Amino acid sequence: MTVSHEVLAAPAPRMARHIDWSWAPRGILLGLLAFAIFGPLANLLLWAVAESWYFPHTFPISYGFSYWAKVFAPRGGAVDALLTSVGVAALTVALSLALAIPAGYALARLKLPFRALILLALLIPNAFPNLPIYVNLARIFYELDLNGTVLGVVLVHTSHGLVYAVWIGTAAFAAVDNELSEAARTVGAGAFRAFLDVDLPLAAPGLLASAIFVFLESLDEFTGTYFVGAPDVNTLPLLLYTAGAGGNYQIASITALVLLAPSIAFMFVVERFLRADVLAKIGR
Amino acid sequence: MNMMPSAIAQARSLRKGGEEDAGHDAGQTDFLTIRGLEAGYAGTRVLKGIDLSVFKGEFIALLGSSGCGKSTLLRTLAGFAKPDAGEIRVAGRDVTRLGPDKRGMALVFQSYALWPHMSVAQNIGYGLKLAGRAKADIASRVGELQMQLGLGGLEQRKPAELSGGQRQRVALARALAVQPDILLLDEPLSNLDARIRLTVRHEIIALQRRLGTTAIHVTHDREEAMVMADRIVILNEGAIAQVGTPQDVYKRPASAFVAAFMGAENCLPLSIEKSGAGLHVHANDLCEGASLPIPSNPLVSGPVEARFRPQAVELTPHQPQTGTEPGGDGAVIFKGRVEQTSYPGGAWRHVVSLGSHSVVADAQRSFAPGEAVNLRVAAEDLFLFSPA
């Protein structure tokens, strides 16, 4: 027994001396990437709990939560902005799904002409530079009395989020085997009943994932909200912008954290619900 | 496109007529009538004029190789494919343009197509729920079907937690729950293990007989069709090649295609002459001359294709002159040489060459490769077809 242990143990120290240097560039790259991702996040966390922090100190001088109280105080406006943001996001999700469910079903199931073109057309709002579009949109919305209304902001967000909703929605419906709804038809379900009882529940996880994407996209949206909504519709990103522009890093960081939390939470949900067979069909 | 309004109007008037007709008895003769049915997609015609009458309670097998149109025919019957021409009537009611949910037909899919988000009981009871039946009523009917199909105790399971055979039975129970006029089966056994398949065959027939449901079963498995069906419909390239009882299509194939499909793969050229008394087979380098009774299928004098099964051959050592005179014993004797011998079980299988041709012949004893043999095929086992 002892002999075999020694035999087994002997080569180990020699192995350790051989460092595989080919991994070094990859290691350094990964380290840089991690720093690029987590560096700003760490900075954000520090600023969120910093009471006072100025040059040349590497770390905050004193820590505390007094700025949190300030942000969430009625006069801070964060609670109002949060409610507006969530409200706008919820309405955007509702509108996007209302459009994406029939559109996704049609694109997945029916033999539509120009199917690829329709899918591509949904990308257009995201393909061109946002600023000139929103400036013009703001002018048009002004004439339609939509400027400074929640509806106006929801419309802008929907135009932006619809590509996620329809693309993922189409993939979700395409992943449901057509024979499943045919089986419902054959035992007496009308076309709409089969859709409600079979296609919709089976596509629901994919649709939920698309809803989350749209929700997060809306929660984060700044440019469109700024041109169409401000100052009447004040969302969290607008509040963050005001705070950041005023050099109020604590308030900006706390707002950013509030925005970040749902994103991270929902990413786990999306990861759970967006199955590989749905992902494989996105954009097809 | 310009056909559309008139076609719809016609369908409407037919449907109206159908509803009025539904009252009186259509008779035992044809429960399901298919007339001149044509279907296809993107320019290719898959079904080229199908005419078929099915009696109530009959079990019909649609048999054919892949791509022959049997699945398209079933899908057209079920209402998932629109026919280009022709009509489908059930008990006198025109259902050609009706939706799949309004035809009184239930389809069992090859993939079973069970709904993964519903339990076994929900899957089976779905059609009853749609029909607006009371909850207790549904539960008792579902329980009854579960008992009949050996699915007791599985009502809370999801399809993913079932074995292949159980899924197949849930699919069958779901279709039977709505008590369809016609049960459509799309290769429902092809995804089962060979051993389970044999028992499920008999279970399906027993159930169908007991319920008296008319059934149309699509399969590419010849034996399955023979065992299960009252009548077999053999399809070839979108047209019906033959309709008949299993014995009919086995013993009296109407065409060379049917003969080959039903196992008569051995094919040799012969030359015949028809006379009032019978059929004279001219001697050639493959066989000796013979006289045969005139078979049921139409033949003209001249070259014919002779087809027979390996089992139909009586293999004997070659004798130069067997004394087969014209008007003799009603069999043709071919002369050949054994090429290969194998034992697949039951009988010895020989590959026998006859000049440039080769055939397969079974025998109870083995003949050595190289041995000269006589192959005697009795008249009733020899299928002759004049070239089309």
From TrEMBL, chain A:
It is a multi-pass membrane protein. GO terms for cellular component: plasma membrane. It comes from the Bacteria. The chain crosses the membrane at residues 27-50, 81-105, 117-137, 149-173, 194-216, 249-270. Gene3D superfamilies: MetI-like. One of its GO terms (biological process) is transmembrane transport. It holds the Pfam family BPD_transp_1. Its main location: membrane. Keywords: Cell inner membrane, Cell membrane, Membrane, Transmembrane, Transmembrane helix, Transport. Residues 82-270 form the ABC transmembrane type-1 domain. PANTHER family: INNER MEMBRANE ABC TRANSPORTER PERMEASE PROTEIN YDCV. The keyword DNA repair does not apply. SUPFAM superfamilies: MetI-like. The keyword Transcription regulation does not apply. It is found in: Cell inner membrane; Cell membrane. Belongs to the binding-protein-dependent transport system permease family. This is ABC-type spermidine/putrescine transport system permease subunit II.
TrEMBL record, chain B:
One of its GO terms (molecular function) is ABC-type transporter activity. PANTHER family: SPERMIDINE/PUTRESCINE IMPORT ATP-BINDING PROTEIN POTA (PTHR42781), SPERMIDINE_PUTRESCINE IMPORT ATP-BINDING PROTEIN POTA (PTHR42781:SF4). Belongs to the ABC transporter superfamily. It is found in: Cell inner membrane. It is a peripheral membrane protein. The lineage of its organism: Bacteria, Pseudomonadati, Pseudomonadota, Alphaproteobacteria, Hyphomicrobiales. This is Carbohydrate ABC transporter ATP-binding protein (CUT1 family). GO terms for cellular component: ATP-binding cassette (ABC) transporter complex. Keywords: ATP-binding, Nucleotide-binding, Transport. Gene3D superfamilies: 2.40.50.100, P-loop containing nucleotide triphosphate hydrolases (3.40.50.300). It comes from Breoghania corrubedonensis. SUPFAM superfamilies: MOP-like, P-loop containing nucleoside triphosphate hydrolases. Residues 1-25 are annotated as: Disordered. It holds the Pfam family TOBE_2.
